[in-house]
Amino acid sequence: MFATTSTPLTKEPLPSENSRGSYWITTFGCQMNKADSERMAGILEEMGYLQAKAELEADLVLYNTCSIRDNAEQKVYSYLGRQALRKHLSPHLKLIVAGCVAQQEGEALLRRVPELDLVMGPQHANRLESLLTKVDTGQQVVATEEHYILEDLTTAKRDSKICGWVNVIYGCNERCTYCVVPSVRGKEQSRPPQAIRLEIEKLASIGYKEITLLGQNIDAYGRDLPGITKHGRRQNTLTDLLYYIHEIKGIERIRFATSHPRYFTTRLIEACSELPKVCEHFHIPFQSGDNDILKAMGRGYTIEKYKKIINKIREMIPNASISADVIVAFPGETNKQFKRTLAIIHEMGFDQVNTAAYSPRPNTPAAKWPNQLPEETKIERLKELNLLVELTAKNRNLRYKNKVEEVLAEGVNPKDSNQLMGRTRTNRLTFFPNKGPEGYCYRPGDLVKLLIQDVRSFSLSGRPLK
Ligand code: SAH
Ligand code: SF4
Ligand code: F3S
After folding, report:
1. Domain contains 331
2. Cys staple from 422: which of 227, 295, 391, 410, with CB 3.0 to 4.6 Å?
3. CA 216–ligand 2 middle distance (angstroms)
């Protein structure tokens, strides 16, 4: 579903009377967008739309967009150009831009692409049906006002039948000076724990084995919920939520992302070490290894505090894997400051690091600062960083060699149908033959004990032990 194709532009037939026609969704950006797309696909199917076989045949095309960096934003304009052309040949085509670029640009998008029918921000994802009803009356619709996110009554159409995303908190109240998310995703809104539990129970009842709790700043979960205090401590934190959902039968693994070092607690680490279903993987971006840059970024912690968190995790959960996000060439970053970022990666030995060169974003403070760095510096630093990240990941992966790891089979390896693929509890992608030594055939959804034989920078291979 989430891929593009290229077929020639020709005049197309109208959808038949008894169906709404077909839809196509392309998703850019983070897991939050993926989760929103799955919900919007569910809404469209309930309305009677069928999934199209190809993007250029669909009667409704929805781009769920990302604005985190300029290159992500530009991608959508090139996709839209093609669809706008098509709309002149097939006026019944419905063209929708959802997600973060929609929120950022609002009505300006209609001026840029007059062929659009609907521009809808991420807070409006669950309202897709009523927005389309308005479109049906012949209007061009823009839905970007601040909106309380309604509990979703429809069933998401999920890509995986094994692993499910579960939103727990929407939005972000931080003000990192480089980041567009707070302005496009709005204020934090936590879902009530009961609604989250109900959703997970439903997933478990239809065979899901793993869930990932999602939030841009997941440690903020519960701050906006009615306060219950017990023994002088606020209830309804992420830690409380983990305890609350842990016993759900059928769910074997629980993950969560993304953690913010500013709010990360020792209590959370304790819960992760105590609760058997919570996987030993932490995604905690640090963004820069230099305290002055962290300050300019408005991150609210020092690199010493960050290191303390990681050391505490390693002390309490020695096998844990740690991943992070890093930005290089932030305005004013000196070579010395950049080297501090490299030093942290060297010192902490991350399992994985998502890297990016700083990209100035609309409505963010850092974009207006005069000390922007030249493109060459961005490219050079990113290249140097990526080399180190790959090397570190490979070194970290060596610890898996000849070890037994439990992998949840998620699907068939698209490059070899005799192999399955899944992830270790520590989130390493792993491939293995679908037959065990006693001839047992493994299937997606199985938890398989593997002996890890091959170790690469970003994946592992092993063989089933029985
Ligand atoms: N909420 C998470 C991450 C949100 S966005 C957090 O607080 O860390 C995902 C990642 O994109 C960020 O961690 C950051 O590394 C990167 N990013 C965000 N804005 C960026 C920008 N303007 N330029 C380059 N990278 C950026
Ligand atoms: Fe962006 Fe900062 Fe919020 Fe993360 S915590 S989404 S980086 S503003
Ligand atoms: Fe992109 Fe929006 Fe996610 S900007 S990273 S899709 S929150």
Report:
1. yes
2. 410
3. 7
